Fold:
Amino acid sequence: MQPETLPLYVDTPTAAGLLGLSRSSLEKYRHYHDPEGPPFVVFGRGSIRYHVPSLLDWAAGRTVRYGAA
Structure:
């Protein structure tokens, strides 16, 4: 999926697929309250969703560039 065709909020399996991570990795970030993990939203009683623009920003912020001045 292209970023412009994605829904605004996605569930854990979809977020994991977008990031190329396992679902359990995202669940561990949440469970351990890891401040390095991607931001997520809780709707109602435990309905976890990821805000796609925030998710993509989080991923972009983890980009490593060697040799950049």
